[in-house]
Design a protein that fits this description.
It is built from 13 helices and 13 strands. It is an alpha+beta fold and 384 residues long. The radius of gyration is 20 Å and the shape is globular. The chain starts with a helix and ends with a helix. 48% of the residues are buried.
Length: 384
């Protein structure tokens, strides 16, 4: 076994023994737990920079490691901007919830109601909710290359035919959630980017979360690195803003988590929006599908959470067991979402009943399972 891998095993073993002692962690102890977990992970996965934010009963802490750019060697911090990848889907879903709360969007309506170009297509028989829960009938993970642009994406939907009966199967899909966001913007009668950057993000108090990073903030935008170690940032694609386009800092993202933990401090339409995103619509194994968010009973075993965020869960269809009526938000739940672009990896998890949350942002796309294990250790350390 390579020395660095052995070091990681020893660190995790020591950590498990430490946590097993049932101690309540002080701030310094939590820092030791995070250090013991993060440092071997960054070495094993060749992650240039990684930032963790945690919240416990309203109190926040940040742990920053490495650099935002391997050339400039600028240290990563809670203000560094990272690409969120599919964590963006939770923001899109919150915007949809806001459109519902303000009477603009009906989740039960057919998708074609909000986009006349879809009349006469399969989307006359697919609801807005089914798009928002990846159950439209088999939309793929990605747009086909020839349709992955603004000019051809609507034509792709006009000709698309379901593989499964709508509502029967969950198949994780950027085109599905992307169209969900696109229809939300249509209902608000605004371009999606405008609705997100000028309406939702300011209402959430998020001043350092962007679809398009302003020139004045580019110095904070981390350089991403691909699996080959080469620099890369997200490139334009069909419905990219809706599905995977946001950039944010650990500080802003943790504020977003706090809004989800305690929505009562927000204006009424946003309270209703967040409640809607935390509503359970169907189950697949241990996972309950919300809007954007995916939820699990808490406490949950690490391996079950890893399985719920696995490649198999994302790439393969799974029968959807619908909850009738939909399940209102529950406190004894872990809410989570992973996100990746070619050069970045993100993970968010929080437990409303405990007032606990963790965000993990890195400028390298490394395996979801490693992010989940790290978050599981941190949440377990705080929940003592």
């Amino acid at each position: 076994m390579p020395q660095h891998a052995l070091s990681g095993v020893l660190n995790f073993t020591a950590l498990a023994l430490f946590l097993g002692a049932g101690q309540c962690l002080a701030a310094n102890d939590l820092h030791a737990v995070v250090d013991a977990s993060v440092k071997p992970l960054m070495q094993q996965q060749a992650i240039p920079g990684l930032v963790i934010g945690v919240v416990q009963n309203g109190k926040t802490q940040y742990f920053s490691y490495g650099v935002t750019d391997q050339d400039t060697r600028q240290p990563a911090s809670e203000n560094t901007l990272f690409e969120l990848g599919s964590v963006s889907k939770t923001f899109t879903s919150t915007l949809a919830g806001y459109a519902v709360a303000t009477g603009k969007l009906n989740l039960s309506a057919p998708a074609s109601q909000y986009l006349p170009a879809l009349q006469g297509s399969a989307f006359e028989h697919i609801s807005v909710l089914q798009l928002g829960t990846y159950s439209a009938g088999g939309l793929p993970l990605q747009f086909p290359e020839e349709a992955d642009n603004t000019q051809r994406m609507i034509g792709y939907f006009q000709h698309w035919k379901p593989t499964f009966a709508p509502a029967s199967q969950r198949l994780y899909s950027n085109p599905s959630l992307g169209l969900f966001g696109y229809l939300t913007a249509q209902s608000l009668k605004q371009p999606f980017d405008q609705a997100m950057e000028k309406t939702l993000l300011p209402k959430l108090g998020l001043l350092h979360t962007f679809i398009t990073v302003p020139k004045s903030q580019m110095g904070l935008y981390a350089q991403g690195y691909g699996k080959d170690g080469k620099p890369v940032r997200v490139s334009p694609g069909a419905m990219d803003s809706e599905a995977y386009g946001l950039k944010s800092s650990a500080s802003d993202l943790l504020q977003y988590v706090q809004a989800n933990l305690d929505p009562a401090r927000l204006e009424q339409p946003l309270q209703q929006a967040i409640t809607l995103t935390h509503t359970g619509y169907y189950t697949v194994g241990d996972m309950t599908q919300g809007l954007g968010w995916e939820m699990y009973p808490y406490p949950i075993a690490r391996d079950a959470l890893v399985a719920g965020n696995s490649t198999q869960m994302a790439m393969e269809p799974h029968p959807a067991n619908w909850l009738t009526p939909a399940q209102p938000p529950r406190g004894d739940t872990l809410v989570n979402k992973t996100g990746s672009t070619r050069g970045f990896g993100a993970y968010v998890a929080y437990v409303p009943s405990k007032g606990l949350g963790v965000v993990i942002l890195a400028n390298k796309n490394y395996p979801n399972g490693e992010r989940v294990k790290l978050a599981h250790i941190i949440l377990g350390a705080m929940d003592k």
